[in-house]
Amino acid sequence: MAKDIAKSAGPRKFKQADEKVKHVERKVKEGDAKHKQGAGIYKWGNRKESVDQKEPFRKLMDQGARKAKLELTETRKRKRKLHYEIEKEVISVWEKTRVRDIEKDERAKLISQCLKKMKGKMPEMALNHIVSRAMQNCVKYCTPGERKAVFEELRPHCLSLAKDKYAHHIVIKMLDIADKAQLQQMLSLLHGNVVALLRHPYASPVVEYAYTISNAAQKLELLSEFYSPEFRLFKGLNTPGKGRLAEFFASEPAVKKRSVLQHMSLALQPILEKGIVDHSIIHRAIVEYLSVSKKSMIAEIVQQLSGGLLARMLHTRDGAKIGVTCVMLGNKKERKKIIKGMKGYVAKIAQDDHGYMVLVAILDVVDDTKLVTKIIIKELIKDLNNLALHKFGRLVLLHLLAPRVRRYFPADVLALLEFSSSTVDDKDFAEEDEAMDEVMKTPADTSAGSKKSRSKKSPAKKAKTEGGAEPMDEDKDEGDADGSTGVSKKDPSLRRSELLSKSGLAKDLAETCRANAKEMLQSQWGSEVIYEVAMGGVNGELWQTIPGAILSLHKEIADLATIENQDDEDVHIMEQYFSSPTLRRLILNSTPPPAGVEGLSFSAVFWSVALKTKCKRWAQGHR
User: Where is the composition biased (Acidic residues) (predicted)?
Assistant: First the structure.
């Protein structure tokens, strides 16, 4: 465009044309600058310079406004908080006591100052999130006399403090440092409020801690509030041998059982609906409820707990019992929810002191092996080495290799797997209903009922006499539509084969044992796993699927026996405390491979590789 203007201008007007060209080029450059930088920045460039010049004045104005805002906030806090100035002083003194290298005398002096400032105002000041921490620190390091004074001042307010977000921590601290007399006083405050406090998100940890540190009699008193308001007053409740509901009901009238179960159901339902299932006292109450309930009542609890709630209960012994009961008596849908609720936590549950029992129950009864493989077995394979060396994790693997062997599994765990459905028969409840009706009847009703009973049969007996089908009882338990309620239809050996071999667990486990043979042989728990794998599992399951891996493991173990010690700290596997008995068991129980598998027995391999021409040396050893 600029060149066209220059050509049309002619020689006389060259200067004018040249000026026009420059003007056009300048406009084009300005347009490009606007396009790249944005019209706003270009337009307000001068304003930006003025803003930069006023920046120091703005900073001064901001500092003044900030200072005024802080003063306004302080004024509002003084009006809103009754002891605001004292709280500030206490916090400043508490900060000095938190120094690591502070002397004991200096800290005791500062703590005494804090307690003097808070005296008479502790219940109100404990609601502050920082003062609550300072108060806990003071209770921890103060003298016994000062601690007793704090206890006496806070004890009447413990129920209200237990429900506060911050103050409930000081109540737990008081329980922690209380002596026997003070603990009994604290427990007396909880009586009559245990169930209500357990429904509160902040107060429930207080009740749980009180239950944890109590003795057996005190635990029973706290637990009895789930039964009924009158139950703890029954004569003989605390006598020896009557710590469980089933034992208590054995010598009590059947009428009491119905009222207690109704009260327990009303007490437990809100707690389960809120999802507060982490506490051991709740687990104990549910176990007691299940021990005296009929199957239809248990089915309601199983339905509520199936899913993520159950996975949060497996850290206690009673919680694991509840989990095993839910797995054993749940239907197909409920078992599926339970397994899916464990997704991502299988390895952690397997290594828990009690949670492993639930995984063992799942491997023992769940027929849906595809689901178990997808969630349970898949996560076990990712952490096989750690599980094989763990005290409880190895039991999950051993249950597939050597199911229900008393050498590995405790007797109570085997009893739980054998008969977890220790429930009351519905016939007992029918007898209780009849007893209840007899109690509630008047003399006139009794005489009229006796005449009717002579002339008229019950519907069930009448139908049975006439050859018809019995009428359906409302309390009678029926199998689920999928026919899997509390029952495992699949053959145990077939289920075990699908979980162990088809899932790939056997192959990975044999490879893990071969790669870590020395570590596992010298481990108290890993030696049991490598022994069962080397023996081929129950009924020779591994010999049928991975014979090559088993023979390779035999060769690896024999090769380890030929390696001499590298230093004084290293112990030979034939002399080590755990590996030596394991090798002995392998040799004594060694059998030739099954038909169709080419190879030698473990004893033959070990003789030819490790012992031949070396018997004199090892015969002189103590192992």
Answer: 471-481
